[in-house]
Amino acid sequence: MADRPDPAALELLVAVSDTGSVGAAARSIGMAQPNATRSLARLERQLGLDLVVRSTRGSTLTDAGTVLVDLARQALAAMDAVTESAAALRGEAAPPLAVAASQTIAEHLLPHWLSTLRTSRPSSTVAVHVHNSHDVVDDVRSGRTALGFVEEPTVPGDLHSMIVAHDEMVLVVAPHHVWAGRRRAVTADELARTALITREPGSGTRMALDEALDQQVRPHLELPSNAAVRVSVASGAAPAVLSRLAVADALSVGTLVTVPLGFDLHRPLRAVWTGSRRLSGLAADLVAIARDEGAVNSSR
C-alpha cells in the first residue's frame, strides 16, 4: 500500500483552497512558508498529481486538487473524531463549545442548527451568548467564545470567516401606514431621506442597511432588539427594515406588511473565528450544519 499522506500536508491543501494562496495558508496553520512549499511538493510527488497552480495573483487548485480537497476535509474530520472519541473513552468530558450569535441568527436559525448538532453528537454541550454583531466580533477576538455568527456585511481582516447562509432584508410598515399597499418601489434615495425605526449602531441589521444606502440612516427611533422594532412599527410610528426571518410571523398574521424596494437588500450570514484557519471538533460540525441548511433554504 502506498504511503498515506501527511495530515499536515492535507491541512495545508485545505487551507490553500480556503485562502487562495500558499503564504496565507501557511500562516493560517502556523507553518513557515518554505516548509509549506516543500510539503505541497512532497504531497504532489507522493500522489503523482499536480494539485496547486501558483501565480503572481495567488494559488488555485487544479481539477485534481479540487476533487481531493473535499476528501482531505473528510479525512481530517475523521482524525479529529478519533481524538475526541479517545478522550471520551478515557472519561474526559469535552468542554462546552462557547458560541456567540447576533440576534437574528440566535432567534431564528441557531436553535435548529443546535438541535441537528445534538442529534449527531448527543454528548455535545454548547454555551450560547447573544449580542449584536459588533459585540459578537469582540467576543470571538477576545477569546470569550470560540465561534461567532454575524450578519454584518464585512468582517475584520484579523478573523477567519465563512458564509453559511444568506438573508433577505425587507421594508415593513403597519397595515394603516401611508405606504401600506404601495406598488411603486421605494428607492434607496427615498429610503435614505425617510426617518426609520432602526436597530442600534453595531447591529448587523443596521450596518447592512447603512451599507446598502451608502450612508447613515435617519433614525426616528433606535431600539435594541428585533422584537422592540416590530412592536414600534406595528403601532404605525414609522417604517423599518428588518430580516424577513424576524418579521415572518408578523407578516403571516397581518400586523405588518411589506413595501417593495427598488434595490437589493440581501446579505450574507457568516461564521467567524480566530486561530487555525481549519475548524475542528464541535465548531466544525456546527458550521457544516449551518452551511448545509443554508444551502437547502437557498434552493427552495
TrEMBL record:
InterPro entries: LysR_HTH_N, LysR_subst-bd, WH-like_DNA-bd_sf, WH_DNA-bd_sf. The keyword Transmembrane does not apply. Keywords: DNA-binding, Transcription, Transcription regulation. Residues 5-62 form the HTH lysR-type domain. The keyword Flavoprotein does not apply. GO terms for molecular function: DNA-binding transcription factor activity; transcription cis-regulatory region binding. Belongs to the LysR transcriptional regulatory family. This is DNA-binding transcriptional LysR family regulator. It comes from Calidifontibacter indicus.
